């Protein structure tokens, strides 16, 4: 039995797992209150991303484009950034935070968005909007490196480094959820509340599960304020749940302001959630309350009802954001499932040496393949050409055709999920997430038995 960590052998990507860097910067932006980003590039860099967000959250939100055309691609298009900022500020009197998010085309033509911001700060803002609180933040997200994951990480670092200011020490901690769903944020806030921990929950998108109210609100918005971002420099510590989605911001605060950073664990499964609670307790001195011990007990009860008989030895393929994918693999192994294929889908060379990945390799008691820079063709190829047998796929909706074509049941996790109702509402983190995940996996297997007219339980009866 061996676990192999390797890079995809092919050049080129067939059916990518992630989209590009600007998407990640846009995801970070929607977590900030009174913020509308301007994506400096072709209109599609916004339109496509906005569509995927709306499909996932079933909400509408606002983001702008400088809408670069042929002439801009040849001669430069900074004039369009300047115009876009002006139009945005005129149209939205409440907007304060305007990230200028670059794209592949505008990075290639070399548009100096930092220079444009300087010019706007000294010109337009002073002349036309004197006294108005406006923050223009250049964010460089060329799409020919990294993916939406690194774009999100870079954007968080840029926002935090732009706003953080040393002031009076605070009793709060910074809490960076990473690329989470509203249901995850609710679950994480539940943990913080139960532990009586005051936190700056950063880039918080809980409101993207927005109620329809009599007042007729039509757009969702994030809730992290400028004040909260400023205060990050004064916190007693930072907990970034995901190494690749917020790790840089936490490291910046430690380096620049001496705010101790704890990176991880992504609290997927009981073991990782236990570790998170311990780290929160160590950082704040707050004890772990009985209520969370009870939540843990409920998760353990649900899991023990399922693991041995139904989940153990089931062969699973996983693709998702890297921290999520690794956490899911850890959880599967805790449940005695066999994550035989783990796909980490962009060119980040840090995945292969991530301690959690090395730990998976060390502890796998079955043949396991971990593929970096992977795409969905790797999954299809293993099923179609390499004889891979699977009982379950864990991943987002972009891989659903593999599930359909090869008859492998699939549990939707991660982003984007648009072919399961309300998926964004259910957590994968914390004890609640562990329960929901284990039950979803078991239910997917049970339903699959029905589809395949399998009348006998597929049980482990050793
Ligand atoms: S790859 Fe380039 S052109 Fe396409 S959406 Fe991303 S930034 Fe825009």
Oligomer: single chain
Assigned CATH superfamily of the largest domain: Nitrogenase molybdenum iron protein domain
* Overall strand count: 14
Fraction of residues in H or I helices: 40-55%
CATH class of the largest domain: Alpha Beta
In CATH, the topology of the largest domain is named: Rossmann fold
Mind describing the biggest β-sheet? 6 strands, parallel
Total of DSSP H or I helical runs spanning 4+ residues: 18
What is Rg? 23 Å
N-C termini distance? 21 Å
Structural class assignment = alpha/beta
In the CATH classification, which architecture of the largest domain applies? 3-Layer(aba) Sandwich
Mean pLDDT: 95
Proportion in β-strands:
5-15%
Order of strands across the biggest sheet?
Answer: 1-12-11-10-13-14
- State the domain count: 3
Which small-molecule ligands are present, each listed once?
iron/sulfur cluster
